[in-house]
Structure formats: C-alpha cells, structure tokens
Amino acid sequence: MTKYDVIVIGAGHAGIEAAHASAKLGCSTLLLTIDIDRIGALSCNPAVGGVSKGHLVREVDALGGLIGKITDKAAVAYRFLNRSKGKAVWATRVQVDKYLYPKIAREFLENTKNLTILQAKVKCLIVKNKKFVGIETNFGQMIEAGAAIICAGTFLKSTIHIGLNSFSGGRLGEESSDELFESIRKLKITTKHFKTGTCARLDKRSIDFLKMQEQVPDTDVIPFSFSNSQILTDQLSCYITRTNKKTHKIILANLNRSPLYTGKIKAHGVRYCPSLEDKIVRFGDREGHHIFIEPEGRDTNEVYPNGISTSLPLDAQIDFIHTIEGLEKAVVLRPGYGIEHGLIDARELDANLEAKKVGGLFFAGQVNGTTGYEEAAAQGFIAGVNAVLAVKGKKPLVLKREEAFIGVLIDDLTAKGTDEPYRMFTSRSEFRLSVRESNAIFRLSPLALKLKLIDKNEYERVLARQEEIKKTLTELAVVKVAFEGKKISLREILKRPNISFENIEKDLADKNISGSPLGKADGQVKIEAEIEVKYEAFLRREKVWQAELKHLERIKIPKMDFTKVPSLSKEVVEKLTKFKPGTLAEALRISGITPAAILAIYSFIKRR
C-alpha cells in the first residue's frame, strides 16, 4: 500500500493552500484532483480579494501561503475599494486571468518539494477506531496516510440546474463526487446542501462598450504578496451597465421556469450575493441593478458579466441579456446555472478544522459552508498546517479573533455554524481596525517564522519595512512647521480629518523644507503611518475593548424582548431571538452581532 503523511482531496483554492503548507512543513503530501488540468480553476468571477476578502488574502500571504503570489502573477487589473473612506478600511481587489491563474497555481505546486499530484477520485475514506488511516480511489488504489484534508468545493453530491433541467455535476462539464459524500455520511458527520450559482459568459466582440461606463484600474495600489514590490502597469478596464424594466419584466415572466421559484432548488443560497431573479423579486422597487463587465483574461474573448448570476433557462437568459444597454447583440458562450452542493455542518469540527468524530480527518473550504476563493484558501492553509501538526503530535494552530480575520472566519464556522453560505465581511470582526488588511504582514509573519513557514530572509524584509514605518512616525513627530499661525508637528497636522500624507509632502515641498525622509517612504509605509496617526484613539479604544471582552462572560442576558433595545437592526434582533445567548460574550460570538450591538444591550440591561 502506498503511504503518505497527508492526503489532500481536491485541488481548488483550499486544496492548493493545504497541500502547499503540508509539503512546505516537510510532510510527504499527496494532492488528489478529479482533473489535473483544472487545479485552481476560477469557477465564478475571475477576481480575488475585495472588502474583507483582501484581509484573508494578505493574511494567508503573511503566513507563507500562495493565493497572493498567484494572484499577482495572473493579475490583469488592480483596484482599491472604499477609496471614499479612511485608509484603514481600504480593500484590494484584483481581476485575474482565468486561464493563467490555474497554470501558475500548478507550476507552484509542481515545484514544491514533498508534494505529489494525482488525478483520481476518492471512492471511500478508510477509518479505524475513529481514526483516519487511508483512502480507496476509483482506480482501486489503497493509499495510507496519517491525516487527510477534504477540500472538495462544490463537488459533493452536486446537482446543476439550468431552468427546469437538472443533472449531476460539481461544475459545468465536470462530474460530482457522490461516493465521497456518502463515505462522509457513513462516519455520522452531519451533512446538508447549499445553493450557489454563476452567470453566463459573453463574447466581448459582440458587446457595445461605448454604451457603458468605463472603470479604469488603479496604478497606485500595493501588490497582494509582500514578496512582490510592483504591480503590472498594462492593465485592463472593466465596464459598467445596468438592468432595466425590460430586463425585470422578462425575468418575472419566466419565474415559472425557474428552479428557484418552482421549488426545484431547495437549498439555501448566498444572502449577500443573490441570483438576478432573486434580486428582481426581493428589490422590486429598484429601477435597475449594476452589472460589471469583467475581462476573463488577456488572450480570450470571453467576459464575465458580474451581477447577473442566474439559473433561468438558456433562452430566457439570452432574452433578458439582450435588453441590457450594450448587450443588445451579446453572444452567450456559456450559460449561467445554479448548483446545489453537499457540505458538512462545520460545528462538527474543532477549532483546528479537525473532525470531532474522526481523528486525523480535516475539512476546508466550501465543504464547511463558505463561499469565495479567499475564505477557502484561508481554511485550506490552516487545515494544511494543522494536519502536519497532528501527524507530528504537536499543539494545533488556532488563530484568535483578535489576531486575524482568519480567526474570525474559523471561529464563526466551528462555534456557530451557518445556515446559509458564509461570506466574510469586515463587520464580522470586533477588531477590524487592529486587524486591517494593510498590517497583516506585521501581525502574522512572526508566527510564520516560528512555524518555519517563512525563512529568516523573508522575515528580515518585514522587519526592515516596520523600521521604515517607525522612522517615518518619528519624523512626523519631530518636524514642526508653521500651521494656522503657530508651529506644530507634522503628526498633529496629519491627525486632522481633511489632511493626508500627500498634503503634508506637498506642504513640505512648497515651504522648501528639504532633507526630510518622508518623500522617500513607499506606498505601504505612507498608508501605515497615516493610519497609525489618524486612528490612534480608535486603536487605543479597541485595545480597551479587547480587555473588556474578558469580562463579558460574567454579564448574563436575562429573558428579554430584543425589539425593545434601541438601535438594534432587524438582522441582529432576529439572530439574538433565534440563538438566545446566555451572556454578552455568547452574543458577541454570533455571526453578524457587532460590538455596537453588544454595547446597546449592555446599556439596556443596566437601565433595567
């Protein structure tokens, strides 16, 4: 029988990180995939990052993972989101080449020592005395291992829906893994199904872009991976158009052919990324909904119309697409579809992503109820590290909520579970200013060095960057200039809400103040220095709040009508009523319950 230390089942974004982390830590690792040519496939939109998701990408990169490195190499356009808000909540989103991304991912894996890739399906999991010991493949191979990580994405007993036609498949044109799903169920691990979907793909040659608003990419952003110093300059634009009343009329007329609205699809879908038919029904008062026409790559005519995910019949898809400005003659290359896929209840897992009922068996990615490449990659990385630590008999890696967005993600899943596909939001974190996207490398690289996920040279680069930020902060405090009739430090000036780092640099130049190192600081140094200055009071408040959290377990919540608590949102009231937390600490651990809501409840209890 062939033997490995760790087997990773599935080569999507979770599987890539799990296999790479495991092999990097010295374990002989086998990565199993149904199709070796589809490693790292971008099943939905060809983009990585975004608000809160960018946090996860940078955290995985800081820990030594791959998603940031692959994204930078496959990038076709960068954007900073939340530009109108403070720099502390800026978020990076990168449009990537759909065909180049898997190629680069495969190259990374094929050049990773201790890693073997095999095209095969898992027929069954072999468990003895509640401990994982191996697998049997569809080719009859028996493979032994000390641990396994299931990263099967949307492939567990999955059904694809296009109109009222349905068929088995984990992705359009790819078969489902029904036997693996049944093997998991036999282990008495709770399973269920969720619904997700994607949109049609269009031929860009048939689109009239002159009728659309061009969205030009940014050139002043920072690469996702700290190992990269520059972004590409030759970037591609996206374009914006909208649905209209004609679009909505066609969709409403075809609801009797929709698997969503005829009851054929029974699973819960993504609340925050609904299908177009769902948006039209739920938000019927809206005149239209934005559609972003995104390139799928440099060497393809295929584009992704982000915002029109649907499972309507193909003829209805073509009809409503042709009502949209600029898409009147659009040629559909692939239909949109809905998919119901199997998953497990993540409460079946410990905080290290290991199954409570089966030692050595880990789960990561959409099989845990999440949606998104970034959430999958984060879980895959942590599962890969913990599988190695389990094989070596060492203490598991569990990131705390105050340490990383990854800690929030995994704690939410394993402590509370989810009754709908889980998507990361900044509001899910109690400490979103402290664990922001821009400081991920400084927060997590010491841990990565300790675990030997990065080497000393990589860590020294991080320390050098921290020293640059420190020097810049010192310079801001020391240099004083005339401002509004008096001399004050640059730091005091920068604290003002309408003053930016760029304003200060221009002011120094106008006053002919030379010799200042401020102009030599690079983009990340400037951003971090400005955040540290402008958000100083807020960051201090978060530290106080972090200390207060230790006492929330003592504050019990009596039986009460949460609708009577001022300022609580409808969603917060619904979740508190459903979960009935016994203490403020338990309430805070409920997904979607913010620190502000906890403060409101605390004040209400005190008044009573």
How many structural units, i.e. domains? 4
CATH architecture of the largest domain: 3-Layer(bba) Sandwich
Would you tell me the overall average pLDDT? 92
Strand content range: 15-25%
What portion of residues is helical? 25-40%
Question: What is the CATH level 1 assignment of the largest domain?
Answer: Alpha Beta
**CATH fold category name of the largest domain:** FAD/NAD(P)-binding domain
Uncertain runs are none
Care to count the β-strands? 22
| Biggest sheet descriptor | 7 strands, mixed
Distance between the termini: 67 Å
CATH homologous superfamily placement of the largest domain: FAD/NAD(P)-binding domain
Summarize the helices and strands and which ones pair or pack.
Elements: E1 2-9, H1 13-24, E2 29-33, E3 47-49, H2 53-62, H3 67-74, E4 75-81, E5 91-96, H4 100-110, E6 115-119, E7 122-128, E8 131-137, E9 142-150, E10 159-162, E11 165-168, H5 178-186, E12 191-198, E13 201-203, E14 213-215, E15 238-242, H6 245-253, H7 276-282, E16 290-295, E17 302-306, H8 314-321, E18 332-334, E19 337-344, E20 361-363, H9 373-391, H10 405-416, H11 440-450, H12 456-478, E21 480-483, E22 486-489, H13 490-494, H14 501-510, H15 523-534, H16 536-549, H17 570-579, H18 584-588, H19 595-607
Parallel strand pairs: 1-2, 1-9, 2-6, 9-20
Antiparallel strand pairs: 3-5, 4-5, 7-8, 8-9, 10-11, 10-19, 12-19, 13-17, 13-18, 14-15, 15-16, 16-17, 21-22
Helix pairs in contact: 1-9, 2-9, 2-11, 3-4, 6-8, 11-12, 12-15
